[in-house]
From TrEMBL:
Keyword Hydrolase in annotation: yes
Pfam families hit by this protein: Peptidase_S9
Protein name: S9 family peptidase
Signal peptide: 1-19
PANTHER family: DIPEPTIDYL PEPTIDASE FAMILY MEMBER 6 (PTHR42776:SF27), SERINE PEPTIDASE S9 FAMILY MEMBER (PTHR42776)
Source species: Carboxylicivirga linearis
Positions of the Peptidase S9 prolyl oligopeptidase catalytic domain: 620-823
SUPFAM superfamilies for the chain: alpha/beta-Hydrolases (SSF53474), DPP6 N-terminal domain-like (SSF82171)
InterPro entries in alphabetical order: 6-blade_b-propeller_TolB-like, AB_hydrolase_fold, Peptidase_S9_cat
Keywords: Hydrolase, Signal
Amino acid sequence: MKKILFIYLLTLFTTLASANNKVECLQWKVSNITQLSKPAFSEFNSVDNKPFKLASLLSGAQSVKSLNTNQWSPLTINEDSVITGITNETQLIWLEGFVTSNQYAKVDFSFFANGLFEIYLDGEKVKTQSKTSEKEINTELTLYTGKHQILVKLLSTEEDLKIAASLTVKDDTDIALNWTTNSTREITIHDVIEGKYIQSARISPSGKYILISEGEVLEESGKRERSMQVFDISKNRTLYSYPGNSLTAAKWLPKSDKISYTVKKDKLADLYVLDVTTGEELLLAKGIDDLGSINWSPNEDYVIFSRSKKADKVGHHKRIFGNDDRLPYFRTRSFLYKLDLSNGVIQPLTTGFLSTSLHDIKPDGSKILFSTSSMDYTVVPFSKQTLFEMNLETLELDTIWKDKTYGGSCDYSPDGKKLLVSGSPETFGDLGVDVQNDHLPNSYDRQLYIFDLQTKEAEAITKTFDPSVGSAFWKTDNEIYLTASDKDLVKLFKYNIKSQSFTPYSLPVEVVSRIDFAKNGPMAVYNGTSISTPEKLFTINLKKGESKPIIFPKEETFNHIAFGETERWDFENKNGTNITGTVYYPKDYDASKKYPVIVYYYGGTSPTSRSFGGRYPKNIWAANGYMVYVLQPSGATGFGQSFSALHVNGWGTDAIDDIIDGTKKFLAAHPTADANNVGCIGASYGGFTTMMLQTRTNIFKTAISHAGISDISSYWGEGYWGYSYSAGATKNSYPWNRRDIYVDNSPLFNADKFNNSILLLHGTADTNVPVGESLQYYAALKILDKEVEMVLIEGEDHHILDYDKRIQWHNTIISWFDKMLKDQPAQWNELYPDKNL
């Protein structure tokens, strides 16, 4: 291969669109030259009597995905447009450049070459010239806000190669184009939902190895692939790799560095164990029917697993037995079984009409802890938990508690004498409640308790601990480790039982997603994100508090992505309470300009964490030129029980007031925020909030509600979980005794007070918040001649998960805000053109 001679200019030199909205593409990055040859017998025609064409060399030469442009050299097109170094025909080179648009745009890309070429936009082929021509080829490109890669694959047909290229805006003169060879760009929706991610990471009992399960969402198709690996921590390398689903239901055994997994054959499963230290595999059990997820005994001599039993099919008429019987899967029951590995005998442990759920196996392996749950529609929260301890030798039962209205998940202490219970503040009556002023505690604010199996007495260990508990692990007699939502962060804490104190760990991430602890030794493995950092995997030495990076699945992609600044911005609400908030700025933020604003807040009751990505990716909104203000209004968990209690029976009150007050104070404190172009967005309970806000204030020029609740009473009765969620959110309050909540604070009954505009989004198959919640609000606003649009996403449930639908859903959100807050309707009109109906 020959090196190309170049006229060197600054690589970061950019070309802006001229007054007539045309930009000359003079600077490129270029690959080395590859000399191709015609194949043997190319002088003969094919069996179809067709001659060999050079275009076949071009199309088959190299794929976009195999390119590594990091080492490419800069090239400036001179007056003769000649690429120096081409000395023969059938020489292949690649060109790379980037175009940035300040908004959604349709542009013409004009390209000339006296050879053959293919043009790619963001990796997708958009044009091919398979015959030489003396004319420029024009290709229409659709550009979203941000930076786009243009690649050109060229094949010479002469002894020199000439090129010329330019971009021209087709319509709007306000569109600004920028041409550059700098690959650094803003984040897009594809960066969030495509590529590799960590499905799970489990550490071996010794703390020496990690079993890592990775997923990957493929570009363009959205198909998902899966792989697993065993990672050696001390050697910092992968020992074994397993593509696809070759290790199904893989997990570590409890005391040895061995992995169990199943192999399905028809409806039967074989159970294997892999010793990672020797690489040996051992078949433990063969031909087991309906073997699902297994739980190993501490001594590795048996496993507990569950089997599901579906109820008999009903005809076209179904009698409903209780509210939950509306759910199609409610009559399915799950029962526990024990597989004795010494003789292969399977012993059924539970049966009957109630499902049984395994909580834990006693450390000595002699007993198991499991529960049943029965419905009781006369007492909040409408279900009662009974907890049992079973002697596995005799199958005798000891009832730990019976018909507890607020149950919990339970694990044995290391000595098996106590339980670590995770539940609501009212799991043990008022023992864990810490609220004032006659407020009711928020049942979603998770608490921890230590329960003595002998005395049957409980101790509330997180009652005055403000963070809301996530996961917990009782590691030693004196140490409990837990993750907890601390305001908008998710942290790792150690609880010292003797001193009754919590100690936070300093971690390199702001939000811990998952954590797994080694049974023997001080090691754990966790993955997490930060506000502008995608998911990473780490190990941590719990004694030293030191974290070590293991995997960053999207490192290569995010090496080329730049983010705007973020900062804390809090305010004091009308009650004198500090309301936490975060501001996302555009990447090239200019303090002399005005920016439209998007305001976002929680849905449900969990705070909006500082995690990366998600269904509502604030980084992308900021990359599209918005200032984004995220606040944590009253009622969110993670700020203490008194704060989260404001969510209970608080529909349309404190949280709404905080958002209005906070937005006004935010605008006053930020001169660059355009107070005339402010939008808000929320989903589910946040969608209710959005609908209600537009009846309470006119500060939001527009709003977007996804799966919002417009009539609290219809949601309460129709949604699969409406009445049960309301058991926490409107505890002891019903349509017949709290008209002030169900009617007065429902957006539907306030539609005549609606201000400005709104876009309603909803999946047509939503079982949580039925689509009728948006339909009836839309109908009301149309009759009232308000500015409202509605987009229904066919076949999607509460979350938009389908790959293609999610991308269009995201583009719908951005295009609506662009139309309403930037006066840029082009993308919205392209997605949803007007029709005369």
